[in-house]
Design a protein that fits this description.
Number of helices: 17
CATH superfamily of the largest domain: Phosphoenolpyruvate-binding domains
Structural class: alpha/beta
Number of strands: 21
CATH topology of the largest domain: TIM Barrel
Strand order of the largest sheet: 1-2-3-12-13-14-15-16
Largest sheet: 8 strands, parallel, barrel
Number of domains: 3
Length: about 475
């Protein structure tokens, strides 16, 4: 059995697809550094995703390590209709019409099967198509059509996505397809549900009600309206993904870096995991090496303090899925070795005044530094203690011991957490010390003679009672 202790604290999420569907490849990706696998319900059938989740659970048993599974719902993706000949050519200044006619389009028009868009568009407004490659300005509006002038773009093919920057479109965040996919994903026993195109807290509450506690909810931040209401959205969600693809179309590109830094900082302060996603190593879909700009992009997310970075098409359909994970792993590791990295993490410690459990986590972080501890050990039921510890961005591994396998799997995406399913935890507070010593050595995190800091609660094994901090030495 290969070792699975990571040499980095930032986690890696990888999307499965045709290029990574076999058990051998999924196992190789896990050993290369993947901490959580993403099932993209925008593509593939339920049977395909179920087969992938079954393989992940087999690998979990084979390796003895919990592995997280994220089911990503498609959401209300807005798309135009199809063209008679597949693709049309466009010219700047050309007049082009979007209407409700379901007939296939041509060089003058195409179907826009979303009447909700017509209600928010106004003359002078702009719509983006195909991830912003085509931009059109509205010059005329009718009851069932809009007439536009093409401002940029040379070609457009059918079923391409459409964005209306700045508009709150009156459509449900969960489509009928999403509801079917959600039930299928929950039946697969996934750990996280990613909700796409969230616009407001009501969208999140709807998803929470449907999930009913059967999985954790991760909101995807793709709409400017979600960024503006982030505090209220975070109060309901369990985590977030900064999906920079659609967000980068809806806001000016020069705003994306500052938004990323602010969002990561805010979500870290809330004590919830944040994934930075989209186009991180995009060129590795076809090339065996990333560009220098892509390597810098991954490093920037790490410097920002993200819990995890994500690969999409790079591992789902790319030519080099394993190399993409290996390179991302190396970039994360090397960035965390930079002498300025820990200074950046320490400079943004969240406020913990008034919360005893947060105070214990903060104290554990500083005590570990002061005594030269090799690791921090947390005993937790729900995972909340480990999340408080991850919030501090400690410079040493956090061994999280939990009797709940579901908690261990959810924590696979959280910064610096090495979750271990430990169902045999019982007894008083003195008992867990030798237990922790054994697992620290078994997991190759610490060795005999090294110190560690441990947090737990009395009475032991009761959720929400973290109130003890202890310094111990492996004997």
């Amino acid at each position: 059995m290969q070792p699975t202790k990571r040499n980095r604290r930032t986690k890696i999420v990888a999307t499965l697809g045709p290029a990574s569907a076999s058990k051998d490849m999924i196992l190789d990706l896990f050993y290369a550094g993947v901490d959580m696998f993403r099932l993209n319900f925008s593509h593939g059938e339920h049977e395909t995703h179920r087969a992938a989740s079954d393989i992940i659970r087999e690998i979990e048993i084979q390796t003895g390590r919990p592995i997280g599974i994220l089911a990503d719902l498609q959401g209300p993706k807005l798309r135009i209709g199809e063209f008679e000949h597949g693709t049309i050519e466009l010219q700047t200044g050309q007049i082009f019409r979007f209407d409700m006619n379901p007939a296939k389009g041509d060089t003058t028009r195409v179907c826009l099967p979303h009447p909700e868009i017509l209600s928010v568009l106004e003359e002078g407004g702009t719509i983006f198509l195909d991830d912003g490659k085509v931009r059109a300005r509205v010059i005329k509006k009718g009851d069932d059509f809009i007439e536009t002038e093409i401002d940029s773009g040379t070609a457009l093919s059918g079923r391409k996505g459409l964005n209306v920057p700045g508009a709150i479109i009156p459509i449900p965040a969960l489509t009928a397809k999403d509801r079917r996919d959600l039930e299928a994903a929950l039946d697969m026993n996934v750990d996280w549900i990613a909700q796409s195109f969230v616009q407001n807290p009501k969208d999140v509450q709807e998803a929470k009600d449907l999930i009913g506690g059967r999985a954790a909810l991760m909101v995807k931040l793709e709409k400017p309206s979600a960024i503006l209401q982030l505090e209220d959205i975070l109060a309901l969600a369990d985590g977030a993904m900064l999906a920079r693809g659609d967000l980068g179309v809806e806001i000016p590109p020069e705003d994306v870096p500052s938004v990323q830094k602010r969002v990561v900082r805010q979500i870290r302060a809330a004590g919830k995991p944040i994934i930075v996603a989209t186009q991180m190593l995009e060129s590795m879909i076809t090339n065996s090496r990333p560009t220098r700009a892509e390597a810098s992009d991954v490093a920037t997310a790490v410097y920002d303090g993200a819990d995890a970075v994500m690969l999409s098409a790079e591992t789902a359909s790319g030519a080099w899925p394993l190399k993409a994970v290996e390179i991302m792993d190396r970039i994360c590791h090397r960035t965390e070795e930079d002498e300025t990295y820990n200074d950046l993490m320490d400079a943004a410690h969240p406020d913990t005044i008034g919360n005893p459990a947060d105070a214990i986590a903060t104290a554990a972080h500083y005590v570990a530094q002061d005594v030269g501890a090799t690791a921090i050990v947390t005993y937790t039921m729900s995972g909340s203690t480990a999340l408080r510890m991850a919030r501090q961005r400690p410079a040493v591994p956090v061994l999280c011991l939990t009797p709940r396998l579901s908690s261990a799997r959810k924590l696979c995406v959280s910064y610096g957490i090495h979750p271990v399913h430990a169902p045999e935890i019982q007894g008083e507070f003195n008992g867990p010390v030798p237990h922790a010593c054994r697992i620290l050595q078994t997991e190759n995190i610490a060795q005999k003679g090294e110190r560690f800091v441990m947090t737990a609660g009395v009475p032991f094994g009761v959720a929400g009672t973290t109130n003890i901090l202890r310094i111990a030495e492996i004997e």
